[in-house]
Amino acid sequence: TKVPRSVNMERLQNGYLFPEVNIYAQRNPHARLIRLGIGDTTEPIPDIITSAMAKQALALSTAECYKGYGPEQGNRELKRAIAETFYQDKQVKENEIFVSDGAQCDISRIQMLLDSSLSIAVQDPTFPFFPNLSIAPRTDLIFFCSPNNPTGTAASKQQLEQLVKFAKANGSIIIYDAVYAAYISDESPRSIFEIPGAKEVAIEISSFSKFAGFTGVRLGWTVVPEELLYADGYPIIKDYDRIVCTCFNGASNIVQAGGLACLSPQGFQALKATIYYYMENAKILVDTKILERAAIVTVPGIEFGPGGEGYIRVSVFGHRESVLEASRRLRKLL
């Protein structure tokens, strides 16, 4: 055709890890690779949750229960459950929650929402992972992930207070990724909205993928507070609502039924066992280093930025037998 390629796509660099993994596998066909690179969940979803999705799917075959399009922003009952489960006492309202098909898609929608000329600061995965804000320059957007991917470190309340203070002083917006919040085991905040004033400077993104095993089911949410305003005073939530209603027809009503079951008392209790399972995997792997000779796939830290040089990212989302086998192989090499 005579249509030119997007200059933005041209700027993207190749050489991501996983094609290289496939090359290694082809060259070593007899190696039993243990894949601990991508953070994909492996454990079955509890029956109470899958049963709710199955019931919703079967109901669509009846005239009485059939439903077509739902609200683009999400089922109201699910939005209420998210607010009560994760944002109790944080003053997050139902209308500020946008249910979606996952955090990755929501990040793309936020990219559509905000002008491409804006400056953005992202974490460089170093140890410690929290930036020195006293010397940081002003930026329009701050992408912040806690618990951090790939380091697993969770920001303390004091650190998040500093971050919110920095954003307010500089007129910045924090894009806060809280996908791994369910795995926080200390007193670290599980939401940016635990910090006073955060609703004036932050958007929070979260997901059912990691705590409920919904990586293939696809369900997440984003919180855009009414208090968050552009420089001219216009509410950002109104533009985000328009983006959602223009580009998205809403998460599957079957999947949303599963999300609601996740947040029921019985469903949430069942998921605690899954969360504990992956946290036990972390304990098994926490002190090990992965070498190519062990035929264990991980992600080099450099893939996450310059600060990751010399480190690797190991996913704990694996079958227990794979994690134990990886540990056995490593002990033989060390």
Care to describe what's here?
The chain has 334 residues and is an alpha/beta fold. The chain has two domains: 24-40 and 276-293 and 314-334, no CATH class; 47-262, Type I PLP-dependent aspartate aminotransferase-like (Major domain) (Aspartate Aminotransferase, domain 2), CATH 3.40.640. Helices cover 38% and strands 10% of the residues. It contains eleven helices and ten strands. Strands 2-7-6-5-4-3 form a six-stranded mixed beta sheet, sandwiched between helices. The protein has a two-stranded parallel ribbon with strand order 1-8. Strands 9-10 form a two-stranded antiparallel sheet. α3 packs antiparallel against α9 (253-262), α4 packs parallel to α9 and α10 packs parallel to α11 (320-333). The termini are far apart. Residues 287-292 have low confidence and may be disordered.
SSE topology sketch:
Layout: H1 7-11, H2 17-27, E1 34-35, H3 47-59, H4 76-86, E2 97-100, H5 103-113, E3 120-122, E4 141-145, H6 157-170, E5 173-177, E6 202-207, H7 209-212, E7 220-223, H8 236-247, H9 253-262, H10 265-285, E8 296-297, E9 299-300, E10 312-313, H11 320-333
Parallel strand pairs: 1-8, 3-4, 4-5, 5-6
Antiparallel strand pairs: 2-7, 6-7, 9-10
Helix pairs in contact: 3-9, 4-9, 5-8, 10-11
